[in-house]
Amino acid sequence: MDAGPSHIHLNPRTPASKNPPISRFPLNPTSKNPIFPLSCVAIEHYNKVQPSSSVSEKLQRLGFEFRSLPAPIDRVRRLLKYAEILPPFDESWRVQENRVQGCATQVWLEAAMDGNGATRFRIDSDSEITKGFCSCLIWVLDGAAAEEVLSVRADDLVAMNVGLPSKGNSRVNAWNNVLMSMQRRTKVLVEERRTECVPSFICCNQTQLIRDDCIFDISIGDDS
């Protein structure tokens, strides 16, 4: 039986507080991913994964972790370990507009962008294996810059090698559908942030123009 790395603490999922706003996602200013300071990677390698690692580095470490488990049943067990450390998902987010479409199981995704422009995600599913997939993606993408989230391709997840080779396999679809949903939500958040910044930019330009006009008028007055 795979006992899993000793640094994983399998605490029961505590119930989420009532309707916590997504802005209250735990943040650590020194970490891009405060939820999972370390991957579930094998004990002899886990100390190489830094909290500030890039998305690309985390994908590489995650791939190594699952490739080190040659038996399919062991990879599934590792997914179940990840499922147990998936952050709580508030019931108020379990609504139709947060459903991830195309999955064989029910999956909900809530996304936001924090004050530093980092993307924040919460995911849940009614399937423990799908929760494991979601937990892996949370570890890689939660707290990352939008550009990094959008740079990930479905092919980058092949190294996890959890689903069967067939592209039609439901587990493979879970990776792809959740990833694509996270990227779509990220694009929406980027556009919303850009739109919010436009009025402020215009206002600043108008103020500067007014100031320039005043200076110009004063100069004319001095010359006369």
TrEMBL record:
What is this protein identified as? Fe-S metabolism associated domain-containing protein
Residues annotated as region Disordered?
A: 1-28
Q: Which InterPro entries match?
A: Fe-S_metab-assoc_dom
Fe-S metabolism associated domain sequence ranges: 65-184
Source species of the chain: Salvia splendens (Scarlet sage)
In terms of domain of life, where is this protein from?
Eukaryota
Listed Pfam families:
SufE
Task: Give the protein family.
Answer: Belongs to the SufE family.
